[in-house]
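Study this fold:
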Amino acid sequence: MIFRYVRRRLLRNLWQTLILIALGGIFAVMLLKLNSYLALQVENRQEMLPNMPIRCVVTDRRGEKTEGLSISAYVIDYLTWEESQLFQHVDKLCIKTVMVFEIPYLARYPQLLEELKIKDRSMVALTRLEAERRLDQVHGVEITYLPGYDEQCFQETTGYFCLLPQDLYNIIVEKEETIDGLPPSDTQQIDNIAVNLLLDTYQSGLATVACDMQVAGYYQGGNRDIYCNWQAALDGYAQIEERCDADSLSFILRDNSRLDEFKDVASNYFVERSISPGLGRYSLTIHDQQYNAMLYSIDRNIKMLQTVLPLLNILTIGIGFFVSYVFIRNRKYEFAQMASLGTGKKKVFLLVFFELALLIITGITLGTVFYMMIENQSAIENVLVNFVFFLCFMVGAAVAIVRILSTNVISMLSRE
């Protein structure tokens, strides 16, 4: 009985039926889109922000100079000592120092040394090759690793590894072939190279430390320095009983969510509140501008959506009332006739309520199917959003039905 009545009513006012179905579909798509965007923002906050590197760089007291600082060894200790408060916040530590070097058997070729301008080059020891910006591929630098070697060599503590500029690598290969009496070969590669490090000492000036470095590869472009792992410098200075200072020092923050905590801890070690007078010579620059801008943007979007979605649901109650009132206001005479024939208001209410519910469910279903097709999402994620939208709309519809049915029967029988 109810289904036959509803079907006749919907077919009789087909255009109104289609409008209401379309309205339900449009609102469903809009709410699903907003909810999906909110979920995406929350996901970005949970996944992207923790992985966004925050680089911290030790600078001079003014925060201007980052190279050639002669950073004392005890500063390095604070960042590498496991008992230090700073250590728990440090990841991917990059320590770099620059040294003068000699390649012994090239000394017999003075003209070659002049052409290569060896005196203008340095031996750069560092813990992480990827942190050396002068080797950035953006600047046209191309690194070639020899078989069995990769960037991890620069974190080794059991041997000495180096990366040569290509011109120097080619010359050394050629000279080694000549010395060994071998014919030149394009596939020939060198396994190691003897290097003398000329280290500064406080007592006697320069001291020479010889070491045998394994050649990990070569690079084209850049500033043509030789790069070696930090262990070479560390052991070199240990042989002359000196502490190895650093020319520059930087690291990546281990946990971005603890940024504020880290800033408070770092303030105890650098500049004004330094726990050591010597540390007051340095500042720590934290490059968190991009992180903070991204965090502010995402949090602002999340807060806005968390405010808008409930407001839209509240607005849906009003929309449900208005649309339902417009949809059934011209049917007062029909309702009066039903009442005069003995149909109770409760049954009339249920008939109209079921009619509107059927239309809005149809619209929501079609809108959800359309949204799932274009966004490739599962239906489970959208059930709650659709359910809340349906409840809010039907609350407004129920109020509209009650409002119309509360009119006196005599008034409803009088046609406008």
